[in-house]
Amino acid sequence: MRVTSNTFPHLLTGQLALLAQRQGQLQNQAATGQRIQNPEDDPTAMRRVLDLQTEAVGISQYRSNIQRLQEYSQVNYGVVRSIKGLVDRASEIATLADATRPQDELNIYANEIDQLLHQGLQYVNAQHRGDYLFSGTRSNTPPYTAVLDANGQVASIAYQGNDELASSEIAEGVTVTTMVLGENTTGTGPRGLISDPRSGADLFNHLISLRDNLRAGNRDAIANANLTELKQDEDNFLYHFGDIGAVQARLEAAESISRTRSQSVEVLVSRETDADLAQTLVRLSQTQNAYQAALQSGGTILNQSLLDYIR
Amino acid sequence: MLGLFGTLNMGARSLQTQQQGVEVAGHNLANVNNPAYARQRMQIQSSATVPDAVGPQGTGAENAAIMQVRSALVDRQLFGEISITGLLEAEQQAYQYAQANLGQQIDRTASGVEGAAAGSQNGLAEYLNGMFASWQSLSTNPTSSAERQVLLLKAQSLATQFNQVDQRLTNLRGALNDTVGSDVEKVNNLLSEIADLNQKITNTEHSSNGMANDLRDTRVARVEELSKLINIRATELNNGSINISIDGNLVVDEQDLLDTVTTYDDGTGRLFTRLQTGGTNLNLTGGTIAGAINARDGGVQALQDGLNNLASLLISEVNAIHQPGFSLTGSTGQPFFTGTNAGDIQISQTLLNDPSLVQVSNDASAVGNNRIALQIAQLANQPLGALSGQTFGQKYGQIVAALGQNLESVNDSLSNQKSVESIIRRQRDSISGVSLDEEMTDLLRFQRAYQASAKLISTVDEMLEIVMSLKR
Prior knowledge:
heterodimer; A: mainly alpha; two-stranded antiparallel ribbon; B: two-stranded antiparallel sheet; 10 strands
């Protein structure tokens, strides 16, 4: 092939441009640590990364859902434990109120029970982040209201919530609720905390009945009916403790699964996008060497001319 | 015998011939860096013989013609390759713009959600994920006005990103359309220039022996420029003209410009090309015009359509769930998104004004109900029939990958094409290129011959002097 004056310069500029472009690419890979940045770099990997990224965001969102649910569950647990304390005290009083106690003492107990009722109302109407905890999904309404009699005693108590629970996703398609209903009289679905026909629990009415029996001195009724009723309430609380514990364990397990999954997604993304630094740097230095060689040889060839030899 | 005076004449002709040789070498040297230039060679031939007793006797040499060294075959190949390069370059540029407009990059150093795989913070994927995540958050806390505010913010970022990308892509397609128009103008200028050059070349060559070398160089440069814009077929005729046809239609016939190219709107605002007089629609397979049309109606259009589809479906799916829901105030029937496609997707202004009106509950009397939020959040993982069984995120990934594949394949083809073109260019350079070494050698050659011719003259002069002195 005939080589002309412009063959070398053209070849050299072409080669230098190519090498410079490669150097730029490799330098960028080394600096960012990434093999791909734009869709054109590797479209299929880009697509997989986008899918993985969606998954990662989803998992991270599930983790924050789980944290939120754990927080609610903790709050519920605290409140349920407080109310359980009331039942314990009421049972104690019911046991104490036997034939050996004078009516005066029973009256004092009755007053205490009334206080316990007030206290229980306060507990059960607790709010967290502005929401009532035990009204079902009617969370802007206090679950219980009390009607007081002329003496300021609790005459009756009414549930104002509903029997619906809101559940949240903790993994794809897996929903969990940490809500506890105040009352469910339908006989199906989640059990009520205060009142549920399946366990026979009806705490507030049972306390009212105990108070009234104390005041009336119906020791038999207390011993036969009220104690049994309170036992049922206590069992119901135990059921709920178990339930809350189970949900918490489930949340913890889900959180640990999410953490593992998020780590493995990270590994997958890294595999798709990250540059092998050792390989990149070796290739970069190879390209740099080639660039230098091209410059040097080109410089030598371009400098040689017949003009140097003829006068 | 020529006689002394005849020999003196021969010497003078020889001086002239060698001098012309130096001139041609000089012309070649001067044009060494002119890319359109083909080296020229002087054809020296021995001049007419005179009869003599010993047979025909030579009378020296004369310059027959100055020819350019050019291969019509290589030129024609190069025209074709330049067209393909032009096509691919135009497509590459358009797709690169589209890729930049989409703004979907992977940036692992950007902050991501705690330890999770991070992407760029400004691609549609992030906004889409962000919005669905906000619905999730809201579902865990349906009455929270903070969560509602965050949701609206994220959704608005998503809508704005859709709007911006759509606007940028519309602008890009508009710019590509404009390119078609302006390139067609250039094509017509070049066509008339080529017809003009054809006339000049035939005129020049008709009235003299040699070739109109430099006009031919200019014409090849013009045909190359034309090839970059549009794929043509160039046929060289015996009289030196080059005929140009586009898509099988003869447009330049010797010195006549038979037809020009014009653009027409197919009714959708997109410009295509056809012949001005003939009216034939042109089916172009090379050149920047075809590249711009391909990119405009191919990858860029597909990208925009894909995003529009995605946005429309997002609007209809989210609204279908949102509308029957109930807000914190018990109101219902409000859509979440307004608009119909990526260009005009917006968040309902009513909701933006009052976040409590976001309808999260499916029970008018229960604000803590989160069914609606949960359903919308679950849309993120729901394969939809309208997206061929893919989720929103997967469909978007597919759209991005499709653009990436377009660009990647154009990049690959272009890099192959460039090496093909450079091989042919090197071929042409090896045939037509000027070599300084050769020209310098020629220079020396002609210089020496010139010296020798001068010596001949001085020798004959001395001989004449001897002849004159005989008489004394």
